[in-house]
Amino acid sequence: MIEAVIFDMDGLMFNTEAMFKKLFREILNQNHIPAPESVVEAMIGCDSRRVQIFEQEYPGITETMVYCQKHRMEYFFSMFKEPGSANMLGLQELIVYLDQQKIPYAIASSSAPEDIRRMVEHAGFKISYKVLTSSKEGIPSKPAPDIFLETAKRLNVDPKNCLVLEDSKNGIIAAAGAHMHSIFVPDQIVPDEEMKPYIQTTCQSLKDVIPYLENQPAMV
User: Fold this and answer.
1) Residue 208 and residue 137 share a domain
2) Superkingdom of the source (predicted)?
3) By residue range, what is the domain housing residue 27?
4) 67 and 91, same domain (yes or no)
């Protein structure tokens, strides 16, 4: 039974991962750092330990990452000037459905809480999430399950009755570690052999999550 839905944010609710890749590539080019596209893709959702590994082969990667993280919100608002223009396909339809069905939902992200709130406010429609959880609160980042378990605790919902929506490998693995239902909604990554066993269900857009929920016992 699905009693609550937990959203990742970057690349799932808003088109921020494609934006981040564009910004990261621009700064690499400006600084004449010859990192291939595979490295740029690896930077999405990359923690500081992994960045240090790439730094050994591509000096300047760490500084580039710090710059992009520092300036990403101003870049976000310059790239997505109109409210709603950053929304991923089906976001509004799914949120409206959850509100109509009175299914509580939360956001669990590695982004800073203030950045999450600003992006949500820029969606162009009301997103009435019940809980916002950020790894910047000192919660271990995905693929550790902690952020999802903490979100379920704040929602007062048993983890096994939560549905996680994710576009990342680390997020899908974290959902499995939390013993939650999950749906992979592809954005910038193609699942590798390590990720594939953790994928329970795939939907091509957030709108496609609605039929999945309609087929759940809790929705009857």
Assistant:
1) yes
2) Bacteria
3) 16-79
4) no
Give the predicted TM-score (pTM) of the model. 0.91
Mean pLDDT (the chain, rounded) = 93
Task: Please check whether residues 115 and 182 belong to one and the same domain.
Answer: yes
Number of domains composing the chain: 2
One domain, residues 42 and 70: yes
pLDDT tens readout for residues 164-213: 999 999 999 999 999 999 999 999 888 999 999 999 999 999 999 999 99
Regarding whether 67 and 53 lie in a shared domain, the answer is: yes
- Concatenate the DSSP letters of all residues of the chain into one string: ---EEEE--BTTTBSHHHHHHHHHHHHHHHTT----HHHHHHTTT--HHHHHHHHHHSTTHHHHHHHHHHHHHHHHHHH--STTTTBPTTHHHHHHHHHHHT--EEEEESS-HHHHHHHHHTSSS----SEEEEGGGSPPPTTSSHHHHHHHHHHT--GGGEEEEESSHHHHHHHHHTT-EEEE--SS----TTTGGG---B-SSGGGHHHHHHTSGGG-
